[in-house]
Predict the structure.
Amino acid sequence: MNENIIKRGELLAQTVIKGLKSRNMNGYYAASKEEALELALSMIPEGSSVTMGGGMSVHEIGLVKALKEGNYNFIDRDAYDDKHAAMLAAYDADVFLSSSNAITQDGILVNIDGNANRVSAIAQGPRKVIMIVGLNKVCDDWDGAMKRARNVAAPINTQRFGLNTPCTKTGTCMDCKSPDTICCQFLITRFSRHAGRIHVILVNDNLGF
Ligand code: SF4
């Protein structure tokens, strides 16, 4: 990557980290996926129960693989026949992993969800939330973050899961009320009441969508 692009990303990340701090959340800069993996693992003590609610970015840095291979109790919902039980187990986990559909330059997190297991666990439950967020998810403001979540992240997810929604066909949000819609719940995290609970690792790379 061009060094000016790298520098711009680092500066942007520092702006977001400042915004997160003002909202009682911790932000960190990782120059690469490898650095992000090392940083995330340093925040998860061995023996911890860890779970997640989707999040390609978490896979892309190799964190899921490392946790499954390491000395952790990784609660893999894909391994549960009873998905509801897996979702309930997530609320009592030591660590919840996720990405964010978007984040504003001043540190507001925007996430949308169909089942709400992910957004509800971000909001409360797990003792620590670690988010892996590529700088491609940073938006100028709240309006931009909502637009990104609905016009970029959601249509890619509906395509990924083969859902019958208008955005699967058009590639952009049509504000549907389809039975298959994944835009059921919107979580705007503008402040964390519990200091030290939400940690956002900003990676100077394109991750997820
Ligand atoms: S509201 Fe419907 S059309 Fe819009 S992004 Fe969500 S699922 Fe797609």
